[in-house]
C-alpha cells in the first residue's frame, strides 16, 4: 500500500490541509456557477432594460388614470423608462465600488424613491408625505436585507467573496 508523501514537518501518510483563509479556500467554498460569463454579461444589460420598460409602462399607466393613451403619455413613459435604466446602470457601476453600508444604502434609496414616485403618480390624491412614508417603508427593509447580504458576502477588508 503506497502512502502519501509526508507534509514538510508532518507525519508520514498524512497530507497537510490547506491553510485557513488561503487562496483556494474561497474557490472551494464558492457554489458552482451555472451560467457562463457571456450569459452574465447579457443579463447585466437585459435586466435593466426590461426593468426600465416595465417601470416606464407602469408610470405611463399611472398618469393616464384609465383614460386614453396619448402621445404625451407615451413620451412620459419612454422618458421615465430611460431615466430608470440610466440610474440603474449608474448605480450598478458606482455602488459596487462602495463599502457595504453605502452600497446597501444606495440601492435602498433607489428602490424607495422608485416606489414612492410611482405611488405619487397613482392619481388618488397622495401627497408628498404619503409618498415619502411609503418610500421609507420600502427603503428600510430593503436596506436591512441588502446590508445583511453584503455583510455576509464580504471579508473584513471589504473584498467581495462568493
Give an overview of the whole structure.
By secondary structure, the chain is an all-alpha fold. The protein has helices at residues 23-29, 37-64, 71-95, 100-120, 128-152. The radius of gyration is 24 Å and the shape is globular. 14% of the residues are buried.
List the keywords.
162 residues; mainly alpha; 0% strand
Gist of the model:
With 162 residues, the protein is mainly alpha-helical. The chain is built from 5 helices and no strands.
Low-pLDDT segments: none
Number of helices: 5
Measured between the Cα atoms of the first and last residue, the distance is: 39 Å
- Radius of gyration of CA atoms, rounded to a whole number: 24 Å
* Helix/sheet category: mainly alpha
What is the subunit organization of this protein?
single chain
Sequence-ordered SSE layout with sheet pairings:
Blueprint lengths: L22 H7 L7 H28 L6 H25 L4 H21 L7 H25 L10
Amino acid at each position: 500500500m503506497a502512502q502519501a508523501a509526508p507534509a514538510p514537518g508532518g507525519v508520514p501518510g498524512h497530507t497537510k490541509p490547506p491553510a485557513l483563509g488561503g487562496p483556494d479556500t474561497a474557490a472551494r467554498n464558492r457554489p458552482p456557477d451555472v451560467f457562463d460569463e457571456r450569459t452574465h454579461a447579457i443579463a447585466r444589460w437585459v435586466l435593466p432594460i426590461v426593468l426600465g420598460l416595465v417601470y416606464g409602462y407602469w408610470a405611463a399607466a399611472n398618469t393616464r388614470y384609465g383614460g386614453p393613451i396619448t402621445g404625451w403619455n407615451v413620451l412620459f413613459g419612454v422618458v421615465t423608462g430611460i431615466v430608470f435604466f440610466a440610474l440603474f446602470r449608474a448605480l450598478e457601476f458606482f455602488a459596487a465600488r462602495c463599502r457595504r453600508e453605502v452600497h446597501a444604502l444606495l440601492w435602498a434609496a433607489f428602490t424607495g424613491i422608485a416606489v414612492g414616485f410611482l405611488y405619487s403618480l397613482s392619481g388618488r390624491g397622495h401627497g408628498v408625505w404619503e409618498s415619502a412614508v411609503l418610500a421609507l417603508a420600502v427603503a428600510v427593509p430593503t436596506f436591512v436585507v441588502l446590508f445583511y447580504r453584503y455583510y455576509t458576502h464580504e471579508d473584513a477588508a471589504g473584498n467581495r467573496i462568493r
